[in-house]
């Protein structure tokens, strides 16, 4: 900025000299002197103007007619300049100090020189630089103006800007006091920025921590890391020679949320689009269970709950076939319990029948879980009977006192016999409930 300001300052100097030259002639009459005096009076820079001819002799000034030859070194610089202009630093009787001179010559040989105190440049520089900066303005090899003598602090760094057209160089020296004063003045802003940054970082940290501890993220991570456990609940047959069965139940204790309900796990996995991954995890754990205890589990079937919408997906059966190849121990022993969650429409019904046929061909048993609480259609049961109907425990709880429920149980039992399906009742805990379940089957 300081270099630009000085360049503009120099341009204005020569613009003023050119204006004076345009209004002048090769004579020094009273009118010419008065004209130069007016130019001097209104000039913001120059304290004296002079006119010189093609022989480089000053013949007129605002003080009157004179006859002074310009130094040969200056003449040489004027001639060498493409714009026929130059600057110099010389002693002046008028100002009584080393004085700044500027020279400009027209194409016809008439020229104008002006002299100004070097301190006039300080005004231009001071508008850009703060008082705490030390600087030195040099013209050629001579110091035009400097305030570094007023700066008593240690000088740390130097920056130089050069105006090549006029051989002027501005050297700026930065001080230690300036650094410290700037730092002190910025401390409130630094503190505010530090507080804001701390708030942003803390908010980000706690947001990430909250998300990582959220149930949604924990369930997702547990499924991805295969971190959930599978418990096995026995299914006891009423017949002495009946086949033993078990049901795989998902269980998970979170570090942050404690024991989480299986219903919550399934619901969250469904929302996250991970319900199939959850199913494959459970089935693989069942395969590991068979592999770990091959002899005790030799004649025991294990069933796994599966979402009805998962069965409708085209990739379900091929993925299941891949797991059966991975765990041959599951073939002929694995069962899928389909929960009644929604009714099948005319489009989904044939698709589900096709999926069931494919799954049955893999040697996997199929059963209806919690029959009577959902929307299982009798038409679907007749078109593709399950291997097992699993009666929800809500019917068992009211068998003793509710004649209507007993009639429903009787009808369901007859339906199971008619369709050649096994019937399983959940929640049989008392002898009267056991007798009530047995009665319709007698």
UniProtKB/TrEMBL annotation:
InterPro entries (alphabetical): CSS-motif_dom (IPR024744), Cyclic-di-GMP_PDE-like (IPR050706), EAL_dom (IPR001633), EAL_sf (IPR035919)
Keyword tags: c-di-GMP, Cell membrane, Hydrolase, Membrane, Transmembrane, Transmembrane helix
PANTHER family in the record: CYCLIC DI-GMP PHOSPHODIESTERASE PDED-RELATED (PTHR33121:SF79), CYCLIC DI-GMP PHOSPHODIESTERASE PDEF (PTHR33121)
Coiled-coil annotated spans: none
EAL domain residues: 212-442
Transmembrane stretches, start-end: 186-211
Highest taxon above the source species: Bacteria
Compartment(s) of residence: Cell membrane
Pfam families (alphabetical): CSS-motif, EAL
Membrane topology: Multi-pass membrane protein
Catalytic activity: 3',3'-c-di-GMP + H2O = 5'-phosphoguanylyl(3'->5')guanosine + H(+)
CDD domains with a match to the protein in the record: EAL
E.C. number: 3.1.4.52
Name recorded for this polypeptide: cyclic-guanylate-specific phosphodiesterase
Cross-referenced Gene3D superfamilies: EAL domain
Keyword Cell membrane tagged: yes
Keyword check for Transmembrane: yes
């Amino acid at each position: 900025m300081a270099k630009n300001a000085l360049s503009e300052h120099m341009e204005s100097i020569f613009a003023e000299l050119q204006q004076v030259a345009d209004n002048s002639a090769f004579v020094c009459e009273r009118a010419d002197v008065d004209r130069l005096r007016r130019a001097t009076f209104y000039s913001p820079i120059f304290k004296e103007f002079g006119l010189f001819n093609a022989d480089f002799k000053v013949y007129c000034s605002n003080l009157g007619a004179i006859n002074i030859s310009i130094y040969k070194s200056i003449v040489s610089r004027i001639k060498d300049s493409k714009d026929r202009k130059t600057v110099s630093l010389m002693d002046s009787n008028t100002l009584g100090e080393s004085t700044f001179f500027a020279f400009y010559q027209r194409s016809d040989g008439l020229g104008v020189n002006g002299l100004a105190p070097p301190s006039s440049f300080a005004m231009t520089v001071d508008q850009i630089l703060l008082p705490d900066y030390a600087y030195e303005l040099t013209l050629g090899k001579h110091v035009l103006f400097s305030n570094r003598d007023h700066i008593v602090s240690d000088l740390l760094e130097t920056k130089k800007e050069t105006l090549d057209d006029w051989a002027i160089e501005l050297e700026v020296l930065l001080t230690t006091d300036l650094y410290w004063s700037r730092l002190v003045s910025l401390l409130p802003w630094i503190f505010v920025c530090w507080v804001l940054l701390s708030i942003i970082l803390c908010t980000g940290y706690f947001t990430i921590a909250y998300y990582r501890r959220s149930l949604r993220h924990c369930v997702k991570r547990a499924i991805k890391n295969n971190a959930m456990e599978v418990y096995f609940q026995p299914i006891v047959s009423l017949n002495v020679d009946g086949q033993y069965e078990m049901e795989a139940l998902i269980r998970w204790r979170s570090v942050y949320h404690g024991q989480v309900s299986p219903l919550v796990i399934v619901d969250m996995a469904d929302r996250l689009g991970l319900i199939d991954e959850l199913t494959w995890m459970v089935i693989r754990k069942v395969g590991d269970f068979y592999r770990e205890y091959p002899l005790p589990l030799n004649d025991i079937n294990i069933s796994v709950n599966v979402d009805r919408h998962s069965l409708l997906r085209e990739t379900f059966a091929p993925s299941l076939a891949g797991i059966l190849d991975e765990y041959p121990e599951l073939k002929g022993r694995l069962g899928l319990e389909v929960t009644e969650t929604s009714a099948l429409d005319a489009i989904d019904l044939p698709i589900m029948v096709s999926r069931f046929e494919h799954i049955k061909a893999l040697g996997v048993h199929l059963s209806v879980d919690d029959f009577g609480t959902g929307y299982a259609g009798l038409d679907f049961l007749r078109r593709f009977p399950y291997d097992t109907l699993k009666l929800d425990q809500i019917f068992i709880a009211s068998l003793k006192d509710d004649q209507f429920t007993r009639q429903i149980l009787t009808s369901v039992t007859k339906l199971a016999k008619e369709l050649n399906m096994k019937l399983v009742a959940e929640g049989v805990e008392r002898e009267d409930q056991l007798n009530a379940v047995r009665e319709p089957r007698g």
